[in-house]
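Input sequence (447 aa), recorded before submission:
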Amino acid sequence: MTNSLLIKKKLENFNKTITVSGDKSISIRWILLASLANGMSKAQNLLISEDVSATIKAVRKLGIRVVLNEKICKIYGNGIDGFKYKKNLILNAENSGTLGRLILGFLVNTPNPIKITGDKSLSKRDFKRISDPLSKFGAILKLKNKKNLPLKIYGSKNLKPIKYVEKKGSAQCKSAVIFAGLRTKGTTIIKAKKSRNHTELMCKYLGLPISVKNKKKYDEIKIRKLKKINSFNYKIPSDISSSAFFIALTVLSTKSKLLIKNVNINPSRTGIIQILKRMGASIIFKNQKTYKGEKIANIEIKGGRTLNSINCPSKLNSGAIDEFLVIFLVAAKANGVSYFKDIGELNQKESPRLKWGSKILNKMGIKTITTNSSIKIFGNPYLKINKKIVIKDYLKDHRVFMTSVIAASVFGGTWNIHDKDSIKTSFPKFLDIVNSLKNNDKKKKYY
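Predicted structure, token format:
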């Protein structure tokens, strides 16, 4: 069976209600913190994907019992010192940068060196950005070429608190330092550029020794040594990054309407909503509520609106960092020239996404001008594709694959998109939901 997807026709207008998979960021953080809690914790709607599976495998290797089925995940924590640091232990983060970086914060006091590995894509990503601050605590991290995986971490029993300035807007780096601070006597202080705050919210909900002061341009976070974590249950909301593909699909349609239920609308994650609304999209939050510190709502999207170009403010970048590929698709159909700057961080993802965003648009016939940290997109509201497009050799980046599917669904043409299995890392049910939008006949598939 081929691992490519062939799409030969556009998706017709639809009026549907869907539910997307559980939030990946919260799923991984719940597993890591529950594994250090006292007793059994339960999660509903845990994302079942390769990144989350890799996290479960990692904590199991550290001696934690995990019982998983489609509806509930149970983790039997052994307390904050409950990890079993075996000799010659190897933890494979596979494709997950979240796992690969966050777990290092919990390993800074390991009595035995632990090796962290990853797949081809993750092994190309920058781990020096996290080894530098963690080494200041007293741990030793040895990386391939002083930057990449595989790495070995040698923990210290005499960890020292640090002061850390996080300038990149990386929630992964910030979170790893928070977790290391929870292992360390004294007070660790972080001055962090605005980024996702799921770690802080979950820690505050659990009553852990962390305080956050929200400044205009950065957050000041103080962390003290952790004594214990009580077991906790969590009903994980739907992932806004996964929802983003269907938000963009609906916005780009001529007259479709979509309701996505129970989505995490954490303000640090809603950059795509703010950007698309500035471009003229109709997106409304309904039935808003707060659950364990996280904001949740149903999202209603209506297509057919006139889309305008945008000179995107840099302050919105961190809240949309995983959604820029589909934002670029919307810009491709907008009136005028859109400009996105200070987005070099996109090239630190699973693939060099800024380059791939430009490449996809160019294949579609859209003119772009790119630098290492910016892109200008010359929109065409009347764009229609009548040619063959092949998408391959993109380091199996799941977001490149899904963005290509949305582009084919909206603009037409014949698309041959390789590495269909890439979606297993974050959103295995993606194509099933695309199929559900076609019509009410479940036997007929769009792809």
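Checked by second reader. The domain at 24-227 is CATH 3.65.10.10 (UDP-n-acetylglucosamine1-carboxyvinyl-transferase; Chain).
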